[in-house]
Amino acid sequence: MRLLQSFLRDARGATAVEYGLILGIICLVVIVAFGVLTDSLTAMLGMIANKLATR
After folding, report:
1. To the nearest 10°, the Cα dihedral for 9, 15, 17, 23?
2. Which of 2, 19, 33, 43 has the fewest CB within 10 Å, making it most exposed?
3. 42 lies in a domain?
4. Is 46 part of any domain?
5. How many Å apart are CA 29 and CA 21, to the nearest integer?
6. What is the distance between the alpha carbons of residues 41 and 49, in angstroms, rounded to a whole number?
7. pTM exceeds cut of 0.70
């Protein structure tokens, strides 16, 4: 019974889960941002390549 009570009072696992959720959200935001910026970056680099090719 004491083992069960000490297990229920232990908050270290909950903290690890919270950090894992925060890390997961940050990773998701980074992946979405790269997806959004990829098209813009490709277009910009294509424009620069075209201007350099015409010189």
Report:
1. 180
2. 2
3. yes
4. yes
5. 12
6. 12
7. no
